[in-house]
């Protein structure tokens, strides 16, 4: 007899959800701990190389990086947790018993899809509240070579800006429109595609006239092959704070509302918006990737009874999940470069692997 209910019994659904959640969390904890230790080992030398940094700064780095690692590897942990759960169910012939009771593959997967939807909702909120704040702080800190970052808000690091033919770079830009400053500024002046001067300033501070008071100057003139120094100068009259803040829009460090406002500002300024729009859409699609994981791992559940190749099926399911993340990163890179439309860059891999998972699931039912 075929069971026409969308879900199996409440007890069976609860059992499968508990199996799914516990295995996924166990994998996530183990994976994040290993990656956190490797990340900390790789960055600890740079952190401790800065005078004044010590054990407290190492703990600060670990605290800031932990949410980013959780957000990045939670979907993959869900995939591995689902594979472990399905392998266990098949080894004990529980999937055979479910199918003998009249449940289809989609009905068996339904509790896991619902649990994955809950995980996706939690991940979205986690990304938009905790992860963006951690990303904003740790990116500014690392871009500043782990030297102390000013406590003010609206901090931008490693900023590049094109002004006509010239290029401007600032290690740090901070403040609002009335009290804005840049630190470690370098201006590359070009004429006809050739570099003519390099002007370095320790600090550039916006004055009431709309120009910049630059101090600690060091200038290299390529025509005379001469380096000169000076105490101060005034310049960069055509550059405003909004141009500088829009020069680097980091989607990972802005929540979805802030990023939407940044996109509107970029459009108003006539700047490219492809990368920002792709990042906006990816904020929605990235948590939803947890919904795909049970579908891609289903090959480990419904092919075992016929083939008996437990390990091979699990490896294929893992490979499908890994291929999705590779395709997702590739499409996002193409969207950032303007090669793919932003909505296609975000949703294309998701829809493609949804069709792949459904095809495998339907074929396993035949």
TrEMBL record:
It is a multi-pass membrane protein. This is LPS export ABC transporter permease LptG. It is found in: Cell membrane. Keywords: Cell membrane, Membrane, Transmembrane, Transmembrane helix. The chain crosses the membrane at residues 20-38, 69-87, 108-126, 280-303, 310-327, 339-362. InterPro entries: LptG, LptG/LptF_permease.
């Amino acid at each position: 007899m075929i069971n026409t209910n969308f879900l199996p019994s409440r007890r069976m659904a609860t059992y499968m959800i508990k199996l799914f959640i516990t295995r996924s969390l166990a994998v996530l904890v183990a994976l994040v701990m290993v990656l956190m230790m490797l990340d900390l080992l790789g960055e600890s030398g740079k952190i401790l190389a800065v005078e004044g940094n010590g054990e407290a700064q190492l703990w600060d780095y670990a605290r800031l990086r932990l949410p980013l690692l959780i957000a990045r590897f939670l979907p993959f942990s869900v995939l591995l947790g689902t594979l472990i759960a399905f392998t266990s169910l098949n080894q004990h012939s529980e999937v055979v018993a479910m199918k003998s009771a009249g449940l289809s593959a989609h009905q068996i997967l339904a509790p896991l899809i619902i649990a994955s939807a809950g995980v996706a909702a939690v991940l979205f909120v986690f990304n938009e509240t905790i992860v963006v704040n951690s990303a904003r702080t740790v990116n500014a800190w690392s871009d500043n070579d782990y030297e102390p970052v000013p406590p003010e808000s609206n901090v931008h690091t490693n900023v590049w800006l094109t002004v006509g033919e010239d290029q401007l770079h600032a290690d740090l830009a901070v403040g609002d429109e009335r009290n804005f400053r840049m630190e470690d500024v370098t201006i590359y002046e070009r004429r006809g595609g050739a570099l003519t001067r390099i002007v370095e300033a320790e600090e550039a501070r916006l004055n009431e006239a709309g120009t910049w008071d630059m101090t600690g100057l060091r200038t290299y003139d390529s025509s005379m092959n001469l380096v000169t120094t000076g105490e101060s100068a005034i310049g960069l009259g055509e550059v405003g704070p909004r141009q500088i803040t829009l020069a680097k829009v980091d989607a990972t460090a802005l929540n979805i509302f802030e990023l939407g406002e940044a996109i509107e500002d970029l459009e108003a300024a006539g700047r490219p918006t492809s990368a920002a729009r792709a990042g906006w859409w990816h904020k929605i699609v990235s948590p939803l990737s947890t919904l795909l994981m049970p579908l891609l791992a289903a090959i480990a559940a419904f092919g075992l009874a016929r083939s008996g190749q437990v390990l091979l099926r699990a490896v294929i399911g893992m490979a499908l999940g890994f291929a999705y993340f590779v395709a997702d990163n590739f499409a996002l890179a193409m969207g950032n470069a303007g090669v793919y439309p932003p909505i296609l860059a975000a949703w294309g891999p998701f829809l493609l692997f949804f069709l792949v998972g459904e095809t495998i699931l339907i074929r396993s039912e035949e």
